[in-house]
Design the sequence.
């Protein structure tokens, strides 16, 4: 019984939190973190130079996900320019 009550309370808090975030986004108060353009530019230059994900990760101290995100953006830009 207590587990069911705890679960319902958890779901209610999550739902209300999402409602608050959506309202704040609509009001322009919740925009999220700005991308680090300098780090992204460094990643793009290293990718163009042919560096591997692992070497970029060690050099710049960033995640593989960020590197993949930058590479995806580069591929999108290149295909749009063709």
Sequence:
């Amino acid at each position: 019984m207590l587990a069911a009550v705890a679960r319902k309370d958890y779901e209610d808090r999550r739902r209300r939190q999402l409602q608050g975030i959506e309202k704040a986004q609509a009001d322009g108060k919740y925009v999220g973190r700005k991308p680090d353009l300098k780090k992204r530019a460094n990643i793009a230059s290293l990718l163009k130079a042919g560096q591997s994900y692992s070497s970029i990760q060690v050099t710049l101290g960033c995640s593989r996900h960020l590197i993949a995100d930058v590479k995806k953006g580069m591929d999108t830009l290149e295909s749009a320019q063709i």
In short: DSSP finds four helices and no strands in the chain.
